[in-house]
Amino acid sequence: MHARQDTTTGSDATLIPRHVGGWSLIAAAPLFWLAWFLMPEPGTVDAGFILRAIAEQRSAVLLSAILQTLCAVAIVPAVLSVAASSSRLIRVGAVLTLVGALATPPTRSITRWPTR
């Protein structure tokens, strides 16, 4: 795949070199898995359990949140390395990936507080 030609200067315009994008993905993968490994019962949606588990394992949850943030940051150069593609589908996919990686909202069931 070739980079888009910059019509004003005649040079190839790439946002991030592809090898940087590749290394970023390689870095993001273990960060992602380690972040999930550190979370108590990942995937649960029981708000009461989540609050108790976080209280019991604050340092692991904090480290997990930091690693998740670093993972999201590592995805940015990877996505930008392919975003200069001439394919509209790839550009749309790149934008949606960045939105998903950097701005994923919590699910509705997690944000509700348990009632007594």
How would you explain this protein's 3D organization?
About 65% of the residues lie in helices and about 5% in strands. The chain has five helices and two strands; from the N terminus they run ββααααα. It has helices spanning about 20-40, 45-55, 60-85, 90-100, 110, and strands at about 5, 10-15. Strands 1-2 form a two-stranded antiparallel sheet. The radius of gyration is 19 Å and the shape is elongated. It starts with a strand and ends in a 5-residue tail after the last helix. Mean pLDDT is about 75; it is low at about 5-10 and about 105-115.
What coarse outline follows from CA principal-axis ratios? elongated
How do the SSEs run, as a string of H and E?
EEHHHHH
| Unreliable stretches covering 5 or more consecutive residues | 5-11, 106-113
Largest sheet: 2 strands, antiparallel
Radius of gyration: 19 Å
Kindly name the structural category: mainly alpha
Number of helices: 5
Strand order of the largest sheet: 1-2
Strand percentage: under 5%
Output mean pLDDT: 75
Distance between the termini: 58 Å
- Share of residues in helices: 55-70%
Strand element count = 2
